[in-house]
Amino acid sequence: MLAKRCSGLALLVVSVMVWVPRSPGEPGALAAPGVAQTPALVEPSPAGQVSPAAPIAPAPKTGGTLVFAVTQDIDTLNPLLQAYNVSGLVSDAVYDPLVRLGADGQYHAALAVRVPTLENGGVSRDSLTYTFKLHPDVKFHDGHPLTCQDVQYTWTAGRDPKVRVMFREEFTAVEEVTCRDDYTVVFRLPRPYPPLLNAVAKYGILPKHLYAQADMNTSELNSRPVGSGPFLFREYVSGSHVVLERNPGFSRGRPNLDRVIVKIVLDENALLAQVERGEVDIWWRVGASKAPIIRDLKDWSLISLPVLGQVLLYWNASKDPRLADKRLRQAIASALDGHAIIKLVYLGYGQPNPASPLVPTHWLFNRQARSYPYDPPRARAMLEEAGWRPGGDGIRTKDGQRLAFSLTVAGEDHLKVAELVASELKQVGIEVRIRPGTSATIYRERQEGRFELGIGRYGQPFETDLRFLLATGATDNVSKWSNAEADRVMEQAAGTVDPERRRQLYGRLQELFAEELPYLPLLQSVNLYAVKRRVHNYRPNPYLLNGISDFWNASEWWKD
Q1: For 173-182, 382-391, 462-471, 478-487, which range has the lowest pLDDT when averaged over its residues?
Q2: 3 state DSSP class of 427
Q3: Domains with residue ranges and CATH for the chain
């Protein structure tokens, strides 16, 4: 089955642009904070040349409805609690943060009048105080004024251990939030925290007057949000759609569109049929197998964009003594061919990622990071060294136990990755049983530790703090990796604003990661978007993360 699918896909690779990351300072490399850069949004042409995405027209039209299609349901519309990027799309349209991180790599003022910096006095010389001046005329969608008290409430809730915040480390990095007056917010830190603006850009401000008397974890506001962003929430039907309508009182100008419908279509084949019938305007995160079809459709653009994210193989090393042996993890790394995954599954859209928690285009990436070249003989030798011997059916055993694992996966592309992983691991004597599921089920099982292997994807912040992913006891440390030196290095890196010192510390963290492999990066992600040519000003965000979404400039979208 896999071989037949792959042989067909391989023939298509010659017509697909392969994106290659560049060193810092070269065109296409994502720069360090403070350096503005606009990533190229390109559409692979049949001849392999690069052609621009739909041009931005100078005179936007107003009115109309845009249908934005996704293949995942939402979990919550509370920006503090959400785990899925698709949820961030909706909450980013309904809520407004203090600042936004745009596709150009710069922070833009949102609720704040300006982005605080050392130069404008918004950041103190010791980097321990950030002052935000709020626009005084902002109102929530119910007409209630938005003031400093709402900002203070939001960030205090994020520190509350009873609130099920996804990334608490970002909130606990702030010692206190105080109000100098109704429209002046002061963040005080116990020590410098370089990713603060990245964190501030992720979280829309919640209405204190509505949330204060409710249990934030269970409030109906989590599915019927009231924000201050460019669009008003009107309706959510699970598994079907979300309806958003223009906020005529939006503080930064009237949005162009009357309405945005986020259409939830869990089956990619069904969604492709709707695209072909012209029933949607944007397909967010197109599966690579559908890219050649989209590329040939009249009136559609296919945008490809490298993002700060990885497709990865993760494992439950804390509960499975077999996976606790790093020799087995390293053997698995040597048995897998990242180039084949990119070529056969993603049709050339992607870039192999060395054994690093950072992608090659991240400004902190260690270019001396260790990699595990595809080397099945070495993988077999490492398994032998670890005591795993081939059985009669070729699957290795040790002390009467088979080297067999279940692999949980959701989504068409990840299923194809899983098939290739299973095929390659079988060649070295490891059996893999694929167990498909939904994103929601797999996320829950992962958080509860009820898995063996999994295929996943994660985004990383523009200004990185990897404690949420790799620190002992961290929320998303699914392998439960615990390394005292790594913890110490991450703490030190989070406490300095010196770029060179951060690069040195993260270089050491990447060395530790490559040796112990808490999880295995397979490739750097490239997002694909199908956009009808009548849609203008849609600019996907390469810094995609929960809360920093492709809706960052939704008020500027318009249609012919």
Answers
A1: 462-471
A2: coil
A3: 72-228 (3.90.76.10), 308-525 (3.10.105.10)
Question: CA-CA distance, 408 to 225, in Å (whole number)?
Answer: 32
Of 559, 558, 555, 560, which is closest to residue 102 (Cα–Cα)? 555
pLDDT at 413: 87
Q: Over the stretch 374-415, which tens digit does the pLDDT of each residue have?
A: 999 999 999 999 999 999 999 999 999 999 999 999 988 899
Please give the structure tokens belonging to residue 124: 């103190």
- Residue 307 in contact with residue 526, Cβ under 8 Å? yes
Q: Which amino acid is at 370?
A: R
pLDDT of residue 241: 97
| Spatial CA neighbour of 1 closest among 339, 311, 423, 292 | 423
Report pTM.
0.77
Distance (Å, rounded) from C-alpha 353 to C-alpha 361? 10
Q: Which long-range contacts (C-beta less than 8 Å, at least 24 apart) are formed by 321-327?
A: 322/401, 322/403, 323/452, 325/386, 326/515, 326/516, 326/517, 327/382, 327/383, 327/385, 327/386
Angle at 480 between CA 71 and CA 216, to 5 degrees: 55
CB 288, CB 413: distance < 8 Å: yes
What does the pLDDT average to over 98-117? 93
Residue 519 · residue 313 · CB < 8 Å: yes
How many Å apart are CA 353 and CA 168, to the nearest integer?
A: 28
User: Which H or E run contains 352?
Assistant: strand 351-352
Using alpha carbons, list the distances in angstroms from residue 213 to 78, 94, 206, 332. 16, 21, 13, 51
Cα dihedral sign, 441-443-448-454: positive
Contacts of 86 (CB under 8 A, 6+ apart): 70, 72, 73, 74, 262, 284
Sheet containing 184-188: give its strands across: 129-133, 184-188, 176-181
Question: Is residue 25 very low, low, confident or very high in pLDDT (cuts 50, 70, 90)?
Answer: very low
Tokens 């010192």, located at residue: 501
Measure CA 284 to chain center: 13
Cα–Cα distance between 418 and 311 in angstroms, integer? 11
CA atoms within 13 A on the CB side of 264: 17
Cβ atoms of residues 134 and 188 within 8 Å: no
Taking CB atoms within 8 Å and a gap of at least 24, the contacts of 247-251 are 247/141, 249/139, 250/555, 251/96, 251/111, 251/135, 251/137, 251/138
181 Cβ contact partners less than 8 Å away, ≥ 6 residues apart? 148
